[in-house]
Amino acid sequence: MNKLLLNFTAVFLIFSCQPQTEKQENFPNAQTYFQKIGNAQNRIEQLANMIIEKPQNDGEFYKNDSIMALWGIANEKFLTSFADAYGNVPTDSLLQMFNGYIPEPLVQKIQPSDWETPIGKNAKKQYNEFLKYYDEFNKLIGKPLCEAETTIKALDGTEKDLQKLVADGTFLIDMWASWCAPCRTFNRNFKKQYVAFKDKGIETISISIDKKEKAFEQASKRDQLPWQNYLDANQFLKKRLGVQGVPFQLLVKDGIIVKIVIAEKVEEEILAYINQ
């Protein structure tokens, strides 16, 4: 988080003090957009500083989750602001802010010529490295999601065997955590798509990797997920798959992994699977 803020500061100074590939006078809105991006980032940092590192009671868990819910909204607006700035800010300046990861809304707007500048070429190289993270998981395709009984816990305390849950049918497995802002954004935004995909025979199962059950409970109650939702406090599935971070999603059919899904392209990639 602080690294991204430093990146923003550095690029703002570069933009203000040095000539860009596109001349500054061609972008009269540039400084306004950079200020909006900076303000959004500052909001996220303020929320981060309000987090109680070791909550001790229900009130503190509730406070933390309230902050994380706001964090998810602020983070989504922050990332969207880069796409909104496209065309109003030198593209090189936008691309220079990122080290590998580039928000999907911005990627969708970038034109082929934007990747051809020295900064663009470097950004594309780093972005491709980011995509390789998902490519590495393709080795899991064709393998069972679980090789043995894997106990997970529902919000009501009921324990289930994940291996049996996915044995029959097609499922989107969504690994998440209460402290993950993009995960909370997914929880908030996926509800309409969930109904559509369920009608097409794809059920959703969310599996939290929270280590603290109270954090899982508070986030689940706030987000009110309409699909199956469980806690894997021991992170058995995360370790089995070799997942480094969340959100992480994949499609499973009759217990077998059939597709790794890029988190920001869930709707697009599930539709591609359905229509193949």
Automatic annotation (TrEMBL):
Q: Which SUPFAM superfamilies match?
A: Thioredoxin-like
Keywords for this entry? Answer: Cytochrome c-type biogenesis, Disulfide bond, Redox-active center
Recorded GO cellular component terms are: cell envelope
Localization (cell): Cell envelope
Look up the record and give one Gene Ontology term from the biological process aspect. Answer: cytochrome complex assembly
- Identify the domain of life: Bacteria
Q: Does the keyword Nuclease apply?
A: no
Q: Name one Pfam family in it.
A: AhpC-TSA
Location (main, coarse): other
Domain spans labelled Thioredoxin = 139-276
The identity of this protein, by name, is Redoxin domain-containing protein
This chain's source organism reads: Flammeovirga aprica JL-4
